[in-house]
Specification:
single chain, YggL_50S_bp, DUF469 family protein, 5-stranded antiparallel beta sheet, Alpha-Beta Plaits, elongated, alpha+beta
């Protein structure tokens, strides 16, 4: 491999990293995933956003998720470290719940992203 002095490619670095360091830096098998959700509320629901807030918090709690952001744009990730497939399943459950809500005109979920290293929207 033809690399500048002191440069170690990320994949090679992760393979040689000890398990303890991979866990501390949320790499490889310790990677955590999340996704962004954007909501478009119906006009009457936009004025009464609190009517969606409580049920949304209950659903997020029931799915063992945590979220940060505003009511119409937020980031969601599991409370505990689970596999990517399990995270995708919870993403689908939340998306389905949101689309069934009468207050929501449109619910959009992003693809899963690394919760620690991104990519993050600008």
């Amino acid at each position: 491999m033809n690399c500048p002095t002191g440069f170690v490619p990320a994949l090679l670095f992760e393979r040689t990293m000890k398990k303890r360091l991979r866990k501390k830096t949320y790499r490889s098998e310790f990677q955590e995933f999340g996704w962004y959700v954007t909501l478009v509320l119906k006009s009457d629901a936009a004025q009464q956003g609190s009517s969606l807030w409580e049920p949304l918090m209950a659903q997020v709690d029931d799915l063992d998720l945590m979220m940060g952001g505003s009511l119409v744009s937020f980031f969601v990730q599991p409370v505990i470290r689970i596999t990517k497939e399990q995270t995708q399943h919870r993403q689908q459950q939340l998306q389905q719940w949101l689309t069934q809500r009468p207050e929501v005109a449109q619910a959009t979920s992003s693809a899963l992203t690394d919760a620690w290293y991104g990519p993050f929207p600008r």
